[in-house]
Amino acid sequence: MESIKIKPEKDLQTMWFFETIIGSLIVLILLIMGSTFDSILRFYALLWAIINIPFLLYIPAFYKTLEYIIDNDSIKTQGGVFWKKYSSLTYAKITNIDITQDPVQRMFNIGTIHVQTAGAGGTQGTLAELRLLGIKNLQGLKNTIMNKIKESTLSRSNQPKETVEKPENNTEILQGIWEELKIIRKNIEKN
Q1: How many Å apart are CA 149 and CA 75, to the nearest integer?
Q2: How many domains does the chain fold into?
Q3: How many angstroms separate the CA atoms of 166 and 51, rounded?
Q4: The domain that contains 75 carries what CATH number?
Q5: Within a 10 A sphere around the Cβ of 52, how many other Cβ atoms?
Q6: pLDDT (tens digit, 9 = 90+) per residue, 91-116?
Q7: Residue 99 near residue 163 (C-beta atoms within 8 A)
Q8: Domain that holds residue 127
C-alpha cells in the first residue's frame, strides 16, 4: 500500500496566530495601564510584545515544514525551521494513541494525536514520542493508524518462526550445563 502524506490543517496556523495575538493584546492592555504598575512589569510586558513580533513571522515558516507520513511499517513526522526534526515510530512499538483538544483547538475544530510506546508516560500523551498537530478528522486518522498496527501485527504473526533444536531429553541439557560448569571452574582456578 502507498504511503499517506498528511499536512496539518491550515487552521493550526490560524490558531497559533490567534493565541499569539490574544496574548499580545493582553500584554498591550497591561502596557496601557502601565502607569498603575511598576517599571519592572512594564519592562516584561514590552519584552513580551517585542518577542511576539518575530514569532508571528516564524509561525508560517514552521507550519510549512510540518508533515506526517503513515506507511506500511511506521509513522514518520518531520518539521522545524532552524533545527529539523525527523522522527519515526514502527507500529510494533506503539502501545497507545491518545486524542486531545484544548478549548482553543475545539474553536478551530482541530486537535492533536499523541502516539506513545511503552517507554512513554504521563497523562494524555504529555510524553508521547510522536505528536500529530492540527488534525481535523481525529478519530478517522486514529482508526487508520490502529488498522495499520493490526495489519502489521498480522503480517508479523504470519511470518515463519525460527526453530531451535530441542534436545531429546533433559539429561542432554543437564550434561551440557555440567560440562560448561567444569570449564568455568577450571578457568577460575587458573586465575
Answers
A1: 10
A2: 1
A3: 68
A4: 2.30.29
A5: 15
A6: 888 888 999 999 999 999 999 999 98
A7: no
A8: 4-157
